[in-house]
Amino acid sequence: MTDVLDDVSGTVAARIREAMGALSAKERLVARAVLAQYPVAGLETTASLAEIANVSVPTVVRFVSKVGYPSYKQFQSRLREELAEKTASPVVLETRSSTSSKDDELVPWASRIIRTSLGNTFEQLPESEVQAAVFALAGAEGSIHTFGGRFTHVLAEYAALNLRAIRQRVYYHRDIQDAIAASVEMSKRDCLIIFDVRRYQPDAVRLARRVKEGRGTIVLITDPWMSPIAEFADIVLPARVEAPSPLDGLVGPMAVVEMIVAGVQLLLGEKAADRLRHWEEATAYVEGRRL
Q: Are the CB atoms for 143 and 242 separated by under 8 Å?
């Protein structure tokens, strides 16, 4: 039986971010140009990419080599593969799933996919971005708002429910109009946690850009192929979304949420403990039960 997991552990975006510290100043210009218009800029000719980044063609070639590709052709080939995965519909994924499974092997097959996806999620998370997310959410002087898409709205609600128990001023927005209304009042003191995975939602992108223009902090939880929001988000946390079903899985992103919540709780310390205690006391009182 073959797995439906695709080898995206070496996505171009991930490799670029990992190599950023080893790049020269000129090579970093190429890196930023590729990430700013990802993956379209990387599909240009070397001359066109050099012009976009305002560097020489040899600089582009050196950049490609430093991020782990022997040639520009292979660099572009990988980008095209990513683009195909990025735009894959449930119909395409259903075909892969149905040709990769057998009913009598469902449990071990599904278990392998989910465990591998979850393990790769943590292996590929940038530690610096994780720490930045924890500090941003624990130290936010204003409010935290969460928003998700067609399926990821459940992650946004889950994140808000957990964060609300350990800190104040946390708001979940299910409806885009509610999120728009909240964005009007958001400032640089506030944070937006937004979830956006492949088949990215234009309204989510525009909402995030609106918050960014108001100088709010954007924490994006996305997939390895990166939502367009990654171009301007302050913090980007990619999670694997492979699943046995034709639809993208939420196990990886949910695990990221739980890790971030744990980090915030640890950083807040006694403040979080006091908040959680009062939260539980209030819940018990309203529900008419003894704590």
A: no
Amino acid letter, residue 110: A
In order of 58, 98, 121, 235, the CA distances from 220 in angstroms are: 34, 32, 15, 6
Nearest-angstrom CA–CA distance, 55 and 3: 41
Domain 123-286 has CATH 3.40.50.10490: yes
**pTM of the complete model:** 0.75
For the chain, give every domain's residue range.
12-86, 123-286
Which two structure tokens, joined as six digits, stand for 48?
């066109």
Token reading at 263: 């980090």
Q: Say which CATH class 12-86 falls into.
A: mainly alpha
Backbone angles phi, psi at 288, to 5 degrees: 70, 35
Q: Residue 17 carries which DSSP code?
A: H
Q: In what order do the strands lie in the sheet with 170-173?
A: 170-173, 144-147, 191-196, 217-222, 235-238
pLDDT tens digit string along 233-246?
999 999 999 888 87
Distance CA 279, CA 291 (A): 11
Going along 6-162, which residue ranges are E strands?
144-147
CA 45 to chain centre: 29
The confidence band for 148, taking pLDDT boundaries of 50, 70 and 90, is very high
